[in-house]
């Protein structure tokens, strides 16, 4: 037995751990991806959640190591070219973390752009609300600013 299947499990598991660390660091602890529906402007945005971060981390680390094994440096060793070392686990974890961070950052950037547009349409907010928004997650910011939006009165 050449240990190649165990090497892939090791790499994917390390990437999943990296994605999980990103989920914890970016407050994406909700298990499933969240679809956020925003009224004005009408948009739907997705936050990756814990499972999304785990999936991205595992796939990214497996993809990067597959490219390394299939490249010229790994082709001479075949499937035995996948090292089972702490260094490879650390690299896979870093790849998983960074890939999940990229997806989370892209999602948060889109959400924050919508929040800024909504905030520009609101009247001046109370200073306590502004202070609370300084440390809030993007999803909490979106809900808070959406609550500040003026509502049109409808007459029967």
Keywords:
156 residues; mainly alpha; two-stranded antiparallel sheet; 6 helices; 6% strand; elongated
Report on this model:
The structure is a single chain. The chain has 156 residues and is mainly alpha-helical. It has a domain at 4-109. It has helices spanning 4-25, 49-70, 72-75, 86-121, 127-134, 138-148; strands at 34-38, 43-47. The protein has a two-stranded antiparallel sheet with strand order 1-2. Helix 1 (4-25) packs antiparallel against helix 2 (49-70), helix 1 (4-25) runs parallel beside helix 4 (86-121) and helix 4 runs parallel beside helix 6. The longest helix has 36 residues, at 86-121. The relative contact order is 0.17. The mean pLDDT is 78.
Task: Please outline the helices and strands.
Elements: H1 4-25, E1 34-38, E2 43-47, H2 49-70, H3 72-75, H4 86-121, H5 127-134, H6 138-148
Antiparallel strand pairs: 1-2
Helix pairs in contact: 1-2, 1-4, 2-4, 4-6
Order of helices and strands: HEEHHHHH
Number of helices: 6
| Helix percentage | 55-70%
In whole angstroms, how far apart are the ends? 77 Å
The major β-sheet equals: 2 strands, antiparallel
Summarize, please.
The chain has 156 residues and is mainly α. It is 66% helix and 6% strand. It has a domain at 4-109.
């Amino acid at each position: 037995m050449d240990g190649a299947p165990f090497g892939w499990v090791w790499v994917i598991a390390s990437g999943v751990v990296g994605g999980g660390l990103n989920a914890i660091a970016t407050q994406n602890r909700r298990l499933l991806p969240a679809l956020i529906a925003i009224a004005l402007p009408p948009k739907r945005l997705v936050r990756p959640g814990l499972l999304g971060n785990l999936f991205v981390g595992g796939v990214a680390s497996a993809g990067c190591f597959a490219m390394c094994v299939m490249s010229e440096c790994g082709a001479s060793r075949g499937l035995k070219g996948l090292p089972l070392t702490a260094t490879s686990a650390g690299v896979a974890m870093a790849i998983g973390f960074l890939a999940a961070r990229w997806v989370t950052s892209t999602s948060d950037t889109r959400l924050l752009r919508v929040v800024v547009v909504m905030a520009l349409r609101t009247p001046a907010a109370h200073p306590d609300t502004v202070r609370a928004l300084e440390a809030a997650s993007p999803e909490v910011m979106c809900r808070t600013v959406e609550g500040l939006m003026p509502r049109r009165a409808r007459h029967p």
